[in-house]
Design brief:
It contains 14 helices and no strands. With 288 residues, it is mainly α. It has one domain.
Length: 288
């Protein structure tokens, strides 16, 4: 049951973060955004991991798993979502729990009962309905290559989260978070180099903090929510934790109506109802 609670808390934090990001009037280059998230990760995850407890003798092993997570489930996701219209990339990327379920069956030997699978299908169905925009540019949709990036991102996250769950079962959340905080450093620097950004650009971003205030605040909520994200993966299977944390789209919509006064479409209400029913059923089944 703790896995369900932590998964939903992670979804609430990410949903709030994405809703606040929508209030930002300035877009940061993907590599700069990730570099800032890396700094937040060090400031937030290191002290929390020390409180949770670290298995120091496991760090040299866990670091490589954390590095894989930083590459596939974080930096690559930033890159993927920066390609094309977010209204098209987000729905495709939101299918990542399906790949987590598939790869976790291979990597971790997850075996789910039929009622649990049906509940997950309900959750995923609601998420996909919510992720799809009411309208989108059909001309953009014809660019099939555009949709390959979010699909690659969904597959990458599925692989990474399944492998990360494998090492979490052998160590602790604190150990993984501590390793992830430092594994992000070389990835963030490499990402800046790949996009030909300079460290002076990072300094300028902080100097103009008022321009990026909501962007910074949104990132803070998202990075903080990842503590609950990995706790969810610690306390339950990846096949269950992944779709639960993906319900952040529900909370992003709900917070969006409050923060940026977004209108809720009929299909959004349908998506929320289906998702909530799936989560309730999943919670009941896991608690048995």
């Amino acid at each position: 049951m703790f896995g369900i609670i932590y998964g939903l808390l992670a979804a609430v934090g990410q949903g709030l973060g994405y809703a606040v990001l929508k209030k930002s009037f300035s877009e940061r280059p993907a590599s700069l955004a990730y570099f800032y998230d890396m700094l937040l990760g060090i400031l937030i995850w290191v002290p929390i991991s020390l409180v949770l407890g670290i298995q120091w003798d496991m760090l040299s092993t866990v670091f490589w798993y954390a590095l894989l997570s930083a590459l596939l489930a974080e930096a690559f996701v930033f890159f993927v979502l920066s390609k094309g219209d977010i209204s098209l990339t987000q729905p495709v990327f939101s299918t990542y729990p399906l790949f987590t379920l598939l790869f976790s069956r291979v990597v971790n030997g997850d075996i789910l009962s039929l009622p649990v699978i049906i509940s997950i299908v309900f959750v995923m169905g609601g998420i996909i309905i919510l992720a799809f925009p009411a309208t989108f540019d059909k001309a953009e949709l014809k660019k099939r290559a555009l949709l390959l990036w979010p699909l690659a991102g969904a597959i990458a996250v599925g692989i990474s989260d399944s492998v990360s769950k494998n090492i979490l079962d052998k160590t602790s959340t604190g150990t993984f978070l501590f390793s992830l905080a430092f594994a992000q450093i070389p990835v963030a620097i490499g990402y800046l180099w790949a996009e030909k950004q300079k460290l002076t650009d990072v300094v300028d971003m902080f100097r103009n903090y008022k321009t990026y205030l909501y962007s910074f605040l949104g990132s803070f909520f998202i990075v903080s929510s990842l503590v609950f994200f990995w706790l969810a993966f610690t306390y339950t299977s990846a096949s269950i934790a992944s779709p639960l944390t993906a319900t952040y789209v529900v909370f992003a919509l709900l917070f969006g109506t409050l923060i940026v006064k977004e209108k809720v479409a009929r299909k959004d209400i349908i998506g929320i109802v289906i998702t909530v029913l799936g989560v309730l059923a999943l919670s009941f089944l896991v608690a048995q």
